[in-house]
Each structure stands twice: as C-alpha cells, then as structure tokens.
Amino acid sequence: MKQTPSHSSSLILVAAGMGTRLGAGIPKALVQVAGKTLVEHAIDRILQVKRITEIIVVTPAGDHRMAEALAAFGSMLRTVPGGSSRADSVRRGLEAVNPGASAILVHDAARAFAPAELYDRVLDALDQGQANAVIPALPVTDTISVVEPGGAAGAEFIDHTPPRSTLRAVQTPQGFNAAVLRQAHAQLDHCTEAELEKVTDDASIVSAQGEKVQVVAGAQQALKVTHPEDLETANQLATDQNSSANTARETMILPRIGNGIDVHAVSQDPARPMWLAGLHFPDDVGLSGHSDGDAVAHAACDALFSAAGIGDLGTHFGVDRPEFSGASGVSLLAEAARLVREAGFEIGNVAVQFVGRRPRFSARREEASQVLSDAIGAPVSVIATTSDGLGYEGEGTGITAYATALVFPRQR
Ligand SMILES: Nc1ccn([C@@H]2O[C@H](COP(=O)(O)OP(=O)(O)OP(=O)(O)O)[C@@H](O)[C@H]2O)c(=O)n1
Ligand SMILES: C[C@](O)(CO)[C@H](O)COP(=O)(O)O
C-alpha cells in the first residue's frame, strides 16, 4: 500500500451550506457561538494541527462575507466559492488544493469543535499506511433499522436491522491519499445535482471505488451542528474548551530569569586576602572593596534579585542594613536567597562565569559550587575563563563575574 506522508497535508473545510435545518436565516458556518462564527471556531482548532499546511475554505456561493472575514488569516488559507451540494463543494475545494499535496483532509465547518487530537489521529493512521482513506467514527447507541416506504401517507416499514455492533456514526475530518480522493471525485463528473445531493460524505465515494477505508475512534466534540438544539451543545463545547485552555494558561508556572554582573579591581595591598566564589585563595592578592570583594557571589546575588524583580545589591545591602557592611560574599548570597524566597519564589539554579587571569580555578571548581549551592539551597555552577590577554582581566588588574539565575513562583 502506498504511504501518504501527512507532514504537509492540505485541508478542505466545507462551509458553503445554507443550514436549512438550523433555520438561522444565514449560512450555517456564519452562525455565532460564544462570540465567534462556526467557521472561525473550526479554523482555530485546525491551526493547532502543525501538519496541516494549507487550508481551503469552501464558502457560500454569492455571499462574500465569509471570504472577507477570513482574508485576515493570510496566505496559508484560501477561499473558493461552493457548489449546490456538499459533494460539489468538496470538488471545488479539490480544484484549489496544491497539486503537489500528498494527503488531503476534508472537514465540515459544521463540526467546528472537533479537537486537534482528532485530526492528528486521522493523520497518524494515514501515515501508518494500512489504508488510503481514514475516517473517525463513533459507535451508535440507538438500534438502527433500514426502512422502506410502502404504506399509505408515507408510512415506513423496517426492511432489516443490521447488528448494532457493526454500525458506526461517521464524522469528519476524513483523511485521504490525495490521488485516491481526486480519482474518486472524478467518478462523480457525470452525476446530476440530485445524484450529488445523495452523496453524504467522501469516504463513501472512495469506498465505492473498492478502496479500503480505515475507521479510527471519533470524538463527541466533533458533533455536527445541524438542528437548533445542537447550538446549545455547541455553546457548552466552546465554553468547556475555552475554560480548559484558560486553566492551562493560569496553572502554567512560568519561570523567570535574571542577570547580574560584578567587577572588582585587584587590590594594591599585597596582603589583602583573595576571596572568590566563596573560597579563599591563599596564593593570590585579593579584590578591593568594602566587602571581601567576592565578585562571583555578588553577581549571583544580583542575578537572583533581578530574576525575582526585587531590586539589586544596593537595594538590600545598602547603608540601612549596617549588619551587612563588610559581610562575606557567601553570607550576602545566603541572605539574597532568603529574600527571594520571602518574595514568593523558589530558586531553580544560578550559573556564574568569571573572567580573570587569577586565581587558578579549575581544581577548585567543584568545591566552589558546593559552598555556594549550600548557601542558597539550590544548584550554583561556577566556571572561569580568561580574556586572551585583553583588557583589565587580561592584564590581571581586575575580574568580571557574569551570573544568570532562574527562579519560579511558588504555587499557592
Ligand atoms: N452545498 C453545500 C452543502 C453543505 N456544505 C457543507 O457541508 C457540511 C455538512 O453539511 P450540512 O451540515 O448538511 O450543512 P448544510 O447543508 O448547511 O445543512 P442543511 O442540510 O440543513 O441545509 C457543512 O459544513 C456545510 O457547510 C457545503 O460546503 N456546500
Ligand atoms: C460528512 C458527514 O459529516 C459525515 O457524517 C455527513 O455525512 C454530512 O452530512 P450532511 O447532510 O451534509 O450534514
């Protein structure tokens, strides 16, 4: 069996029907449900299916409102005027499909709330290649009988009753190998309007050509809006789908990142101890400053404050907190972590890189990470580099530390 790769599929959305049974006085796909037309609801869901790369909307012939409203969707969506029956509308849609398309889906705008998963299910089955046509369907709950007219005043009589377990209520989107669908529709070329009227879906035409049609599980949400009472269900579906989208958005925990940079000059005092990344380096001359000059710890503090949006080192360790004057970098960092948590955040991690000729760092990298991680109760990684002899870092007269922190709001 020929495989129909669906990674770039075209979709024909038939929306040209008049909606006689609905009786809204306008084409059915233009009827509004929860603030949007049915055709717009359908397109919203189709756009979630990344494998659909072309949408042809078949619009009510002679009525420009839909085509005008859909112009805003851009070049991925095109409109063509429909025909006098669904089959005729599909055929007009087919003529507009990119000739290179290998897979084509046909969907009713009247089934506006078919979820994106349903399209994917059909396309997945088509990809598996057991059949050149795949349709979604649901088991039926009523007993279904085939009837024959025969009596007076249009009375009907049962001809036979197929076993219910063999029956399925067929839905859309229906998926096809493009050549197979085109070939099947070509068989309808000489049909009269009345004959076309009796063709209620595309799978039945393809099946009549002897092609196997695979059935996959349908979805209750793919209900076809047909009668006025269906609008109430449609409204409920729109509300449910909107509220689950909103809930997902509301419950999504967005992390926040922050940056911090600190620069310290190497002290002129050869006796000044070198503290960096929470460690003492006895062979190096220290960094100048009122504090211990630990540029790595200070940059990490600023990154944490910036991620939480609560100011910077100056805001928290200024003159109004004399207990921190001259405090070690590690104790400032521990206090910064406490303040970030107090502001309602948890800490994901902090990453710091410093640029400098000294100290030699690689042998003590793990030790530094451990000390700083213990201070904030979250992973801190520290790496070092040189500046290839350039600038104050290259001359050995100063050090720059760059830090990034990731925090996330604690769930209430
Ligand atoms: N000439 C037609 C008839 C139907 N359709 C589309 O085919 C789908 C299924 O048809 P149906 O639900 O029967 O819609 P209507 O034909 O509008 O309904 P009615 O039979 O009540 O008039 C709908 O999305 C409808 O817009 C179409 O594109 N062109
Ligand atoms: C294609 C269809 O939705 C499958 O169930 C259905 O046959 C359309 O029928 P309608 O009479 O055009 O509504």
From TrEMBL:
Q: Which domain of life is it from?
A: Bacteria
Q: Where is this site: Transition state stabilizer?
A: R21, K28, H290, T386
Positions marked as site (Positions MEP for the nucleophilic attack): R164, K224
Please give the Gene3D superfamilies that the UniProt record associates with this protein. Answer: 2-C-methyl-D-erythritol 2,4-cyclodiphosphate synthase, Spore Coat Polysaccharide Biosynthesis Protein SpsA, Chain A
Record key words, sorted? Isoprene biosynthesis, Lyase, Metal-binding, Multifunctional enzyme, Nucleotidyltransferase, Transferase
Pathway it acts in?
Answer: Isoprenoid biosynthesis; isopentenyl diphosphate biosynthesis via DXP pathway; isopentenyl diphosphate from 1-deoxy-D-xylulose 5-phosphate: step 2/6; Isoprenoid biosynthesis; isopentenyl diphosphate biosynthesis via DXP pathway; isopentenyl diphosphate from 1-deoxy-D-xylulose 5-phosphate: step 4/6
**Sites where the protein binds 4-CDP-2-C-methyl-D-erythritol 2-phosphate:** D262, V263, H264, H290, S291, D312, L313, G314, T385, T386, S387, D388, Y392
Q: Does the keyword field hold Lyase?
A: yes
GO MF term set: nucleotidyltransferase activity
Q: Which reactions appear under catalytic activity for this entry?
A: 4-CDP-2-C-methyl-D-erythritol 2-phosphate = 2-C-methyl-D-erythritol 2,4-cyclic diphosphate + CMP; 2-C-methyl-D-erythritol 4-phosphate + CTP + H(+) = 4-CDP-2-C-methyl-D-erythritol + diphosphate
Per its UniProt record, the required cofactor names are: a divalent metal cation
Q: Which residues does the UniProt record annotate as the domain 2-C-methyl-D-erythritol 2,4-cyclodiphosphate synthase?
A: 256-407
Q: Region 2-C-methyl-D-erythritol 2,4-cyclodiphosphate synthase: start and end of each range?
A: 256-412
User: Which InterPro entries does the record associate with it?
Assistant: IspD (IPR001228), IspD/F (IPR026596), IspD/TarI (IPR034683), IspD/TarI_cytidylyltransf_bact (IPR050088), ISPD_synthase_CS (IPR018294), MECDP_synthase (IPR003526), MECDP_synthase_CS (IPR020555), MECDP_synthase_sf (IPR036571)
Q: Which intervals of the chain form a coiled coil?
A: none
Q: What is this protein called?
A: Bifunctional enzyme IspD/IspF
Q: Which gene encodes it?
A: ispDF
